[in-house]
Amino acid sequence: MGRYRGSVCRLCRRENLKIYLKGDRCYSDKCSFERRSYPPGQHGQRRMKASGYRDMLREKQKVRRMYGLMERQFRSYFHRAERQRGITGTNLLVLLERRLDSVVFRLGFAVSRTQARQLVRHGHITVNGRKVNIPSFLVNMGDVMAVKEKSRNVAPILEGLELVDRRGIPGWLDLYKNKFEGEVKTLPVREDITMPIQERLIVEFYSK
What we know:
There is one protein chain. This protein is of the alpha+beta class and about 210 residues long. It has 2 domains: about 10-95, Ribosomal Protein S4 Delta 41, Chain A, domain 1 (Orthogonal Bundle), CATH 1.10.1050.10; about 100-185, Structural Genomics Hypothetical 15.5 Kd Protein In mrcA-pckA Intergenic Region, Chain A. The protein has 9 helices and 5 strands, in the order αααααααβββαββα. It has helices spanning about 10-15, 30-35, 50-65, 70-85, 90-95, 100-105, 115-120, 155-165, 200-205; strands at about 125, 130, 145, 175, 180-185. A 5-stranded antiparallel β-sheet has the order 2-1-3-5-4, covered by helices on one side. Strand 1 (about 125) and strand 2 form a beta hairpin.
């Protein structure tokens, strides 16, 4: 599976929203979006023409980049959400939140989803006592995620836990900081996702 390897600060500027892709840097004065909050490129400061299709595309790209997915993978999540009972847009966001890399980030074991994906890939995280190195693994209610005992002195994990109080823990998760563990109390609902997302536009984009 391919992944984006360019400047992530460009992505925030492209979507005209700080989507916190660089961890602590996004909270500091070094944040590029704070200094240049207009789209990147030669024509970035030109006024964009209003377009319904443009709004749908930008919303889809924003969420895809927020969760660090390529188009093919994001589209597969949409089709899976479409087959589930309930509201397709909400189903999509819940599936994305349930990804193991997203949960590791939400619990504060990493300062960004990119870093969380790397921790999972390198085998630092267990689910219910078993090592899981698949970032797309979907957690369920009652699952316990933990940092392996040998990995508890890894600098990025300690840094993430230091910053977690500022970022906060979603209500559907419990963090046991001293034990380097977190638990899924219940599956997330739409109200738990606080970033400004208009999932209706994503549904309309893929329904065209």
